[in-house]
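Q: Hi! First time doing this. I have a protein sequence and I read that you can turn it into a structure. Is that right? Here it is:
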Amino acid sequence: MGYVAIKGGETAIAEAVKLLEFLRTRDNTASPLSTEAIQNQLHFLHSRVLSEGGLYHPELASLAIKQSAGDTLEAAFYLRAYRSTRPRLGETPLHSGKNMRLIRRISAAFKDIPGGQMLGPTTDYLQRLFRFELLDESPKHFRKIAKTWLKEIPDEVLPTTFPKVLDSLRQEGLLPPVTEHHEHPFDITREPLVFPVPRSAALATMARGETGSVLAIAYSNMRGYGDIHPTVAELRVGYLPVQLQHPVTSEFVEVGEVLMTECEVVSMYEAQENEDQPTFGLGYGACFGHNEVKAIAMAILDRALQKGIKHGSQSPSEDPEFVLLHIDGIESMGFASHYKMPHYVTFQSDMDRLRTTQKNFQEGKISE
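A: Yes, that's right. Below is the predicted 3D structure, encoded as structure tokens:
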């Protein structure tokens, strides 16, 4: 089979792009989605793209969702591509989840926690039944819901921050103490992953990993390809104040806040040599946006990777190289999508080899 010259390639590509735009706008009766509508009405989708894109820019995350027609991987790709063009103006100091302005806070470890449980916005207690009235939701009713809820807010002032559940466990000696030494965070956007990598590199990679990939590998560990069966000590969703050093006064000032999800899990201890006393193992997960499943799965993987590094990996979910090189959605999508590109030459070679092998087999030159 010979090669056939292809004509009109650039024209076909241009028309394909136009067709994609046609699919987005073909409903002449609909109004275009605003970035505000995407951010507010598609809250969890928006949060997922913020996290996987690795750039906290709510407006551009909405634009990415709109431009990609809802493809989360493509949307995250847009954010990362944009981030790579921006200069780095400075670095923030270390921030603590204690300072979050919380909208949700729960613990599966204790019924009563300092400050109390705060259910906040969640789908945890919903029956997965369709609300068919949303098929024809009137703008008047839509706007009335939020106004009604705001009127029923109690007048008493709620605390802006709450203590950490882990603090009480540390006071009892059930968790290892916090060390004052802090390693400089590994920058995965500027340094390649050359294994072994520090824990900060693993956490950063998982923080912007693809939600489904992080969940799938963590699930494999929970099912038996590993043995991390954690308890959620605390799950927090809220707005974390961000500080930067003032260029004139050198004082740290608050420059804004980011919506974050943070999860801390504890798992049963293991008796180990050269240890003063056994303690619970700790796993940590945090990501941009409101994405609880990812934060929990990330915390489980963090604990699994720590165990794998210390004792040798017994399963894929405990192998840092396996986990960290397979959870990035952009990398995975790129490798899978590249098979759509022309492979004419390599496939011609495969066909030639197969035809030669078949011919030799038919002539008895090779046996079964």
